[in-house]
Amino acid sequence: MTPARPALPALLAALGALAACSGPQAASRPAAPPTREAAATPKAAPAAPAAAAGPAAARPIAAPGAGTEATEPNPRAQRLFDEAVAASEEQKKSKGPTEWEVLERRWRAVTDAQDLPEAWFNLGVVLERLGRSSEAASAYGRALRLRPGLAEPAVNLALLEESGRDPRAAAREYAELARKHPDDAPARVRLASLYRAAGQLDEAWRLGREALQRDPKAPGAHKVMMRVALDRGNADLAELLALRAQKLDPDDPEVIFFLGEGLARRGDAAAAAAQYRKALALRPGYLPARHGLLRQALAAQAWETVAAEARKILEADPRDARVQLALGVALRYLGQAAEAAAAYDRAESLGGDKLAEVHLARGLLLMKLSGRCEPAIAEFRRYQARIGPAAAVSSPAPSLERECVQIVAQNKAAEEAARLMQREAEEAARKPQGGASAPAAPAEPR
C-alpha cells in the first residue's frame, strides 16, 4: 500500500537541499572553497597545479613580498622546477586522472635541489590533494618562513586550519591577509565565501568584484558571485557568470554544475540534468552534480532512480544522513520494507536530533507497509515534538496520527467483537440442546 499523499511533500521538502553540497556542511561554511592558485618561480615560469580543481594555470609571482628578497634559483633547481611544471601541464592536457604521486616526487626533487619557497608551496598543493593535510601545512609553513610576503601559502594554510574554527575568527584572518596583500585575490575570494555563507550577500558580492579587479581570471571569484546570484534568485546573472568562468576553464565541473543549477531554477529539468551528467563525465566523483540528479529524481518521484543515485552518493559519503533518508523513502515506495527500515535507522544514527523527518518516514513505513499503527503513532509524536507545535500544525503528522488512532480503535473494537463471538460460540457448544428426552415412539401401522 502506498503512503498517504499529504506526507510526501513534507519529506521532499526535508530532502530538497540535497544538491547544494557533497556532504554535510555547517551553516557557517561556504558550499565550496574557491580554487587555490599555485605559485610559479620568481622568473615567472608556468604555474604549478591548482589544489581545488586539478592542474590549472595560475598567475606567477613576479615580485617578492615586502621586506624580503627573491631567491634566485640555481640552474639545477630551475631545470627541475621547469620539469615539474611541464609534467603538470602534460597531465592537464591528457585529461586523465592526475598522478599526484608523480608530481610529489617532482616537487620534492626541486626542494632537495634548493630551498625555494615557490617549490615548497607547490609541494604543499600536491600533498593536500593526496589527503596529507599535516604535511601540506608544513610545506606551506616552510614557504612562508622563506618568504613571508607570499599570499598564496598564507591563504592555503588558513584554509587548512579553517575546519572546526569559529567562522568569525577565520573571517578576521582573511581580512588581515587582504590588508597585508592589497593586490591579492585569494583572501578576498575566501572572505567573500564566508560572508555569503553567513547570508551577507552584499558584502560577498563586493569582495568577489574586488577579487576580479585584482585578478580577472580568478575562478573562485566567479564561483562565489555565481552562488550569490543564485541566492538572490537571479538565474540569468548566475548563468552569465558561469559562461564567463567556462571560457577560462571549459572543463571545470563546478562551473558546468552551476550552469545546471541555473537551468534548474528556470524549471528546465532536462537541460539541468544534462549539465549535471556532463560535470560527472569530467569528474566522476563530483558529488554536487550527483546530488543534483538525486534532487531531480526526488521531485519527479522516480523512486528507482532515487535509490540508484542515493547509493552512488553513499559509496563516496556513507555518513550523509539525508541521503540515507532519501534512500529509505525510495525503498519504501518500491515496497522493500526491511531495507527501508534499515536505511531509516542509519539516517537516525547519523542525523540524531537534527533529522526529525526520519520519524515521519518511519511512521509511514510502519503504518502503510507493516500495518503497525501503535508504533507508528509514537513515531508521528516524536516527529511533532522535534519540529515544534507551530510547524506541526501544517505538517501531515497530526492527521496521520488521528488516522492511526482511529485504526487502532477500530482494530480493538473488531478484536473485542471477535472475542465476544468466540465466547458465545464456546458457551453455545457447552449448553445442552433442550435437555435429555425419551426416544420417540414408533409410528402405528395403518
List keywords for this structure.
446 residues, Serine Threonine Protein Phosphatase 5, Tetratricopeptide repeat, disordered N terminus, elongated, 0% strand
Any overview of this molecule?
This protein is mainly alpha-helical. It has a domain at 1-18 and 289-422: Serine Threonine Protein Phosphatase 5, Tetratricopeptide repeat, CATH 1.25.40. It is 67% helix and 0% strand. It has 21 helices and no strands. The chain has helices at residues 7-14, 75-94, 100-113, 117-129, 133-146, 151-162, 167-180, 186-197, 201-214, 219-231, 235-248, 253-265, 269-282, 287-300, 303-316, 321-333, 337-351, 357-369, 373-387, 389-393, 397-430. The longest helix has 34 residues, at 397-430. The chain is elongated. Residues 1-6 and 16-69 have low confidence and may be disordered.
Multimerization state: single chain
The coarse silhouette is elongated
Sheet bearing the most strands, described? none
Termini gap: 72 Å
CATH topology of the domain at 1-18 and 289-422: the name is Serine Threonine Protein Phosphatase 5, Tetratricopeptide repeat
Strand content: under 5%
Overall average pLDDT: 79
CATH homologous superfamily name of the domain at 1-18 and 289-422?
Tetratricopeptide repeat domain
Contiguous runs where pLDDT drops below 50 for at least 5 residues: 1-6, 16-69
CATH class type of the domain at 1-18 and 289-422 = Mainly Alpha
Name the helicity range: 55-70%
CATH architecture of the domain at 1-18 and 289-422: Alpha Horseshoe
What is the H-and-E element order?
HHHHHHHHHHHHHHHHHHHHH
The number of distinct β-strands equals 0
Number of helical elements: 21
